[in-house]
Amino acid sequence: MASCTISSHFTAFIKKDVGLSAFSSSQSSFSVPKTKRRISREIVSVMTPQQSPRSPSATGSVKTAMTMTEKILARASEKPQLSPGENVWVNVDILMTHDVCGPGSFGIFKKEFGQNAKVWDREKIVIIPDHYIFTNDERANRNVDILRDFSTEQNIKYFYDIKDLGNFKANPDYKGVCHVALAQEGHCRPGEVLLGTDSHTCTAGAFGEFATGIGNTDAGFVLGTGKILLKVPPTLRFVMDGEMPDYLLAKDVILQIIGEISVSGATYKSMEFVGSTVESLTMEERMTLCNMVVEAGGKNGIVPVDGTTHKYLEDKTNVPYEPVYSDEQARFLSEYRFDISKLEPVVAKPHSPDNRALARECKDVKIDRVYIGSCTGGKTEDFLAAAKVFYASGKKVKVPTFLVPATQKVWLDVYGLPVPGCGGKTCSQIFEEAGCDTPASPSCAACLGGPRDTYARMNEPQVCVSTTNRNFPGRMGHREGQIYLASPYTAAASALTGFVTDPREFLQ
User: Fold this and answer.
1) CA 294 to CA 201: how far, in whole Å?
2) Cβ neighbours for 457, distance < 8 A, ≥ 6 positions apart
3) Alpha-carbon distance 282 to 308, whole Å?
4) Which terminus of the chain, N or C, has less C-beta within 10 A?
5) Left, alpha or beta for 234 (phi > 0: left; psi -120 to 50: alpha)?
6) 373 has which bridge partners?
7) Distance CA 255, CA 475 (A)
8) Whole-number Å distance between alpha carbons of 329 and 54
9) Is residue 379 classed exposed, middle or buried when 0-12, 13-18 and 19+ CB atoms within 10 A define those classes?
10) What are the CA-CA distances from residue 140 to residues 132, 177, 179, 198, 420 (Å)?
11) Does 58 have pLDDT greater than 50?
12) Buried b (16+ CB within 10 A) or exposed e, 70-89
């Protein structure tokens, strides 16, 4: 059984490893990689002893219990049940692509199916330009043109076009960051299979569906057939209970988890999030949680559907959907338990999302800039959180602070939605008073670098606190730049001091 340790300044947790014999498929075998870890002298983790698998019933037919992910893939592959390790042809409900991967996917589709071939279903393909949009780079602009040409040729129903790059508001169809737009436009539905040519497609798992990123070749095949060959992943279960402190956000929770299991701890595994803490989260916070499972190597992240899910979807879609839930006796590869009430604000130091540290431990790290945006940290609630910190401080930022709303809707919220408890002021008013940069046009912007003229790109070897999802060398531009991943609370607090700062300094 794998073991792990946590320094006392993190949280006590329980990890239960399920024996591999728990998986019923005789044609599959799994092994848990042994990780060499440095042993801390302050061991506060607790693990329950491994339990022996239950003996099968001696008579009658026994149906194997399944997890949420297994049930969704079983239904999509028209099979009564599935077990981890099985390879199945899955029917796809939604395929999303964008300006970076769309052209390549279309090229493969035409090469393999013919220049005059038609896509399998024009209403199940969603095309969203969002990555390299507001730039003078000719190749980036050409990619958007290719999306437009293909969408016109194939009569794609859901193509969110942009033509006027000088004024995004002049483009009513333009949305912005694909993962946030998919949710806002009603393309995320419980029990479905959603694939996208982007690794953070796993964000949609917040809606109780199987959502994962795929490559251009797979996407080209899906365009022509509506099917994909997938291996059923085993599931890691994360049980999170306890009241969320008012200085924590979902970003702190997922950084805590990634720091715990490492960037390879969930490789080709489903990460299922349950517990009273998860149930208390809004949909946008659940999206943050699922968004970064890929930074742990996860195949997909998933949250059970509840009243919060249904309420969010009320005005988003009229397509019928059918949620699924893990069976009580479903088998999980491992189970992790966290008492969220004991967590503190954390960051991921350069140059890896699992390089976890408490924000207060990094108080001597001087920074050059702050970036608030992306599919991870550019949603409406992310800006409301940042505004709350700025308003509570009554101070001005000490470093350039860049704000990039994920979508047009988020941009409108930033300018029109009053921030609770802030005297009726909007985010934009609070940001202006704090001396932040004017909120930019909705897009992925500097999250992944992009052309040199991309807004807020790191063109110098600076230190940045960012609400984005990756901090590898060169991720936001300059290869020698240093990125500290953090929640919007921590990012805003850091902007006010010019150092990595625990938000409790302003929220308590």
Assistant:
1) 9
2) 445, 446, 449, 450, 451, 476, 477
3) 7
4) C
5) beta
6) 404
7) 18
8) 10
9) buried
10) 6, 16, 20, 17, 39
11) no
12) bbbbbbbbeeeebbbbbebe
What tens digit of pLDDT does each residue of 325-379 get?
A: 999 999 999 999 999 999 999 999 999 999 999 999 999 999 999 999 999 999 9
**Is there a contact between 205 and 290 (Cβ–Cβ < 8 Å)?**
yes
- Predicted confidence at residue 13, as pLDDT, reads 59
Answer whether 446's CB lies under 8 Å from 350's CB. no
Q: Residues 446, 262, 214, 335: is their CA dihedral positive or negative?
A: negative
Q: How far is CA 28 from the centre of its chain?
A: 29
CB neighbour burial string for 367-376, b if at least 16 within 10 angstroms, e if fewer: bbbbbbbbbb
The Cα–Cα gap between 80 and 463 comes to 52
> If you search the block for the tokens 């606190």, which residue do you land on?
465
Nearest-10 Cα torsion for 450, 451, 457, 461: 100
Half-sphere exposure of 396 (CA within 13 A, CB side): 6
HSE-CB at 245 with a 13 A cutoff on CA atoms is 17
Q: 34-39: list long-range contacts, CB under 8 Å, 24+ apart.
A: 34/2, 35/2, 35/262, 37/3, 37/4, 37/5, 39/5
Rounded to 5 degrees, what angle do the CA atoms 439, 444, 109 make? Answer: 150
The owner of tokens 């996208």 is 196
CA-CA distance, 45 to 4, in Å (whole number)? 7
**Which of 1-15, 84-98, 220-234, 239-253 is predicted least confidently?**
1-15
Phi, psi of 136 (to 5 degrees): -95, 5
- Helix 138-154 vs helix 102-113: crossing angle, to nearest 10: 50
Q: What SS3 class is residue 299? A: coil
Digit-coded pLDDT (tens) for 102-131:
999 999 999 999 999 999 999 999 999 999
For strand 87-91 and strand 13-17, is the pairing parallel, antiparallel, or unpaired?
unpaired
Bin 488: left if φ > 0, else alpha if -120 < ψ < 50, else beta.
alpha
Q: Which two tokens stand for residue 90?
A: 């899955």
CA of residue 434 relative to chain centroid, distance = 29
What are the CA-CA distances from residue 487 to residues 137, 249, 290, 399, 437 (Å)?
31, 6, 15, 17, 19
The tokens describing 385, both together, are 């959180």
Across 151-234, where does the E strand assignment appear? Answer: 158-159, 193-196, 210-213, 227-231
- Could you report the per-residue pLDDT of 124-173, keeping only the tens digit for each? 999 999 999 999 999 999 999 999 999 999 999 999 999 999 999 999 99
Per residue, the 3-state secondary structure of 23-45, as one string, reads CCCCCCCCCCCCCCCCCCCCCCC
| Structure token pair of residue 405 | 């709303």
